[in-house]
């Protein structure tokens, strides 16, 4: 049974502007494991990766029903690619399966998260 669903759109230019300004967005949004992956990419892919994880965590918090804040922070959710290269939510506070989809265009990233009641 579906507990919640969340969708988010994020403009890549917004994330890129924050990176250019020298804001510590990667350290705020990404877990240490995600940050290690981020650092292996070139500039364009870093923007896509960071925007995708930012959007995915926003989507997760919406599915959880709280938004980003005290109940669910950026560091509470971790999204890493599985062996097949598909993003998977590997750490999160909800007691049940969490599903993620991330899609990019040249200007936007769109993410959707579905949380299910019960365990697999």
TrEMBL record:
Its EC number is 2.7.8.7. Pfam families: ACPS (PF01648). Its cofactor is Mg(2+). SUPFAM superfamilies: 4'-phosphopantetheinyl transferase. It comes from the Bacteria. Keywords: Cytoplasm, Fatty acid biosynthesis, Fatty acid metabolism, Lipid biosynthesis, Lipid metabolism, Magnesium, Metal-binding, Transferase. Mg(2+) binds at residues 8, 58. GO terms for molecular function: holo-[acyl-carrier-protein] synthase activity; magnesium ion binding. GO terms for cellular component: cytoplasm. GO terms for biological process: fatty acid biosynthetic process. It is an enzyme of class 2 (transferase). It catalyses: apo-[ACP] + CoA = holo-[ACP] + adenosine 3',5'-bisphosphate + H(+). It is found in: Cytoplasm. InterPro entries: 4-PPantetheinyl_Trfase_dom, 4-PPantetheinyl_Trfase_dom_sf, ACPS, Ppantetheine-prot_Trfase_dom. Residues 5-109 form the 4'-phosphopantetheinyl transferase domain. Transfers the 4'-phosphopantetheine moiety from coenzyme A to a Ser of acyl-carrier-protein. Belongs to the P-Pant transferase superfamily. AcpS family. This is Holo-[acyl-carrier-protein] synthase. It comes from Lactiplantibacillus fabifermentans DSM 21115. The gene is acpS.
């Amino acid at each position: 049974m579906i507990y919640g669903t969340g969708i988010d759109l994020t403009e890549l230019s917004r994330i890129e502007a924050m990176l250019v300004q020298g804001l510590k967005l990667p350290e705020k949004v990404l877990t240490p494991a995600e940050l290690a992956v981020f650092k292996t990419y070139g500039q364009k892919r870093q923007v896509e990766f960071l925007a995708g994880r930012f959007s995915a965590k926003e989507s997760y918090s919406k599915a959880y029903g709280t938004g980003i804040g005290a109940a669910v922070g950026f560091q509470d959710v971790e999204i890493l690619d599985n062996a097949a290269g598909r993003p998977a939510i590997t750490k999160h506070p909800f007691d049940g399966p969490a599903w993620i989809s991330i899609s990019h265009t040249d200007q936007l990233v769109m993410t959707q998260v579905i949380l299910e009641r019960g365990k697999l």
